Structure formats: structure tokens, C-alpha cells
Amino acid sequence: IDLCGPSVPFLLGLEDQDVHQCDEGWVPVYTSAEKKLAVMSIGFLLKNRSDAVIWRGPKKTAMIKQFLEDVNWDELDYLIIDTPPGTSDEHITVMECLKTVNTDGAIIVTTPQEMALEDVRKEVTFCKKTGINILGIVENMSGFVCPNCSECTNIFSSGGGHSLAELAKVPHLGTLPIDPRVGELAGTGKSCVKELPDCTTTEVLQKIVRTITVGAE
Amino acid sequence: IDLCGPSVPFLLGLEDQDVHQCDEGWVPVYTSAEKKLAVMSIGFLLKNRSDAVIWRGPKKTAMIKQFLEDVNWDELDYLIIDTPPGTSDEHITVMECLKTVNTDGAIIVTTPQEMALEDVRKEVTFCKKTGINILGIVENMSGFVCPNCSECTNIFSSGGGHSLAELAKVPHLGTLPIDPRVGELAGTGKSCVKELPDCTTTEVLQKIVRTITVGAE
After folding, report:
1. Domain tally for chain A?
2. Is the alpha carbon torsion for A92, A97, A99, A103 positive or negative?
3. Which range marks the domain in which residue A17 is found?
4. Contact across the interface for A88 and B4, Cβ inside 8 Å
5. What is the full per-residue pLDDT of chain A (217 aa) written as tens digits?
6. Measured between beta carbons, which residues in chain A are less than 8 angstroms from residue B126?
7. Does ipTM surpass 0.95 in this model?
8. In this structure, are residues A17 and A65 in contact, taking their beta carbons and an 8 Å threshold?
9. For a Cys-Cys bond, which of A14, A148, B116, B125 suits A52, CB 3.0-4.6 Å?
10. Do B55 and B90 fall within a single domain?
11. Among candidates A58, A115, A151 on the partner chain, residue whose Cβ is nearest the Cβ of B11
12. Do A54 and B88 touch (CB under 8 A)?
């Protein structure tokens, strides 16, 4: 529901896909023939990848409601909603729409530098004020290992996710390093879990998924 | 006017400052006794740095109008407006408010990876559709020089700002590398131009400022 910057179709290599209508509503885009992962994004509705969605809040709210109510999601195990940064229309609308159903909670992603933590503290306050359970905090872009000399530099400082989790009294789910190999996979439709089974990113991601799914059962 | 994530007070080391009222309106916060730089941010109006602004579009629009109309800005050479990412309420409101006065234009900042360029292409479309002149594109976080072995790695790929500028037919103002020393200065109120006169960031920033100010005269 990042209507102004929908990156999910690009990340999953689905940019040329279209959403179709059926009697039950919109048919989401599937990443494979096995139909394991269904995706809906405003990116599929734009004719051109440089098209801008120049909408004020009420129009964004109406579209988000359609994504939740008018998409033929079929039977789902998990519904993952990716939001833009902030605590405004998108977040308020999702919170209100999901009030009537049981949600597991929110995963908050931050980068480690103090400036990002400033903003993410506000996201934590949003969740607490609106009664959304926080599943935990993930620290992304933490530390870079030089491919030449293997020296690890904490480019954007480090430990911010951990200290924020302590402050907010929520679990710290994991710390993801910067790995250019993972970035290169973006847009190819390939997953680092399959392509780079031994890298730290894969290890941390799998640990995070295990923690969350066990907690949800 | 990034109302949900106001970072400017932190970046300038002004977090403990308050905005006061005078007969002519709000008095902005000055960074020094010489009153060279006046700052206004919703950050000054929040009691606590973790407070969240949970507002839908119309309330954000009203606050932005106040920032432009009710602040006693005095005589200004330049008014710089920092926006959040996106093409929604904040951007539409600023564009409408500034229609009646002459603006020099917009500076678009991107990071080099394809995913960021996806979003920034939409910002370019926004400016073109709404008739805002684009002064140019700055590529930030481009390349990281290992402090141990001096090997430069293009962590998030590179050249994206340049190719986007070509595509959009606007000037490419400069390419800023990742420098942990510059990041450390954030929040101290110190400037890399003064503290690190020989670093690439300083050199590129000064070139960008020269290009923009010469163009504006």
C-alpha cells in the first residue's frame, strides 16, 4: 500500500504483469504456477513505470480499502501489508480496516543510524496508541563487509535496532547486514534464501520467519 | 514538511529548541546568534521526540499552509522545503501554495539502486505534470570507500542518478559517496564543510551549491 512508491512488483520481478477482473473481484498476480504467493500492488494498475500517483489522502484510502475488500485473495495463511514510512492516511486506514479481524501485529524495520531511529520511534508510538501489537523490530543495513579485505564497517552506526527494541520493550527480531549480492538479486525474481544459502542475510531472514511464524501459531 | 518524520531539528542539533509566538506569527528557530539560518519544523512543536503525528491529509495540509503563511520568516534569500518521499498531500499542497510566487524549482535526491530510481522517476513525473522546474538530480549514498583498504564498493550499484538525469533530460548535479565521518556529524550541529574540508562529500556539496545559486541569480 505504498501507493506513491510501489516497489513490490519490481522486487519480485513482476513488473510486466497485469491484474485482471473476475466475478469475485480483482485477481491478484501470482509469482509462480503453484500460486503460493499472491501479490496486489498499485504498480500493476499503472500503464508506465514512471507514472506518478498524485493523490491526496481520501483517494489513497479508497484504494487501500479496495485492496483489502475487492481482491479475490482466496484462502490465505498470511497477509503481509507493506506500508510506506510515516503515520498518516495509509497507516490509519489499514489500522481501521483491520480492527474487525484478528491481526498478528506489526513488524517494524529500521536502519541503525540515530536519524532513522528518530522516525521509527514515532512508528512504535503509533502502534502503541492504536493498539497494534508489535511483533518486533528488524535492523536492516547494519554493517558492511568489504569484499576486498573482509573488514566490517558499521557505515550507518550499529545496534540501533537493539536499543530501540529495549526502549520500546518489544523483541529485537534480527540484524541484517548490507550485502551487495542480495541487492543484485532484487528485480530478478530470485530469492537470496535459494541463491545464497550460506550468506548471513539468509540465515537472519530464516531466523526471523521462524520466530514470527512460531509466535503466530 | 515531513510531518510524520521530521529529521531537520535532529540533523541541525536543535532538538531542545522551541518555537515561540510573536505579534507577526511564529518565530522560527535560528541555528546561531547571527540568525543566518531560520528553521521551522513540526519537530519543535512535539513535546517528546517519540511523539507521533497521526494525521490524515487535510490536517497535514493545514499545518503546511501555516508553515508558509504564519511563520515570521523575515527577509529570506532562499527558502528550502524538505519533503518526505511520495507525490501526495504534502507535495500537492506545497505545489499549490507556491504557484503564486516564483520558485526556482525542485532538487530531486535519489540513491543509486534500481528500486530507488523506480520511485524517483515518479517524482520527476510529478514535477513535470505540475509544472515545477527541476533544478537537477543528486545521487546520494553512491559507493563506499573501505576505511581499511581504500577499496571502493558500489554497495547500492552506481550511476543511477546520472542515467535518470539523462532520461528525464535534467542536470545531474552531483554524486555523493557514503562517508561514515559525515554521518557521525549528524546531530552535532557541526557541518562537514567546516569539519572535513578535504572530503569528497564537501567538495561535491560545494559544487552543487555553486551550480544552483549561480543558476538562480
Report:
1. 2
2. negative
3. 1-99
4. yes
5. 999 999 999 999 999 999 999 999 999 999 999 999 999 999 999 999 899 999 999 999 999 999 999 999 999 999 999 999 999 999 999 999 998 888 899 999 999 888 889 899 999 999 999 999 999 999 999 888 788 887 888 887 777 888 899 988 999 999 998 888 898 899 899 999 999 999 999 999 999 999 999 866 6
6. 52, 54
7. no
8. no
9. B125
10. yes
11. A115
12. yes
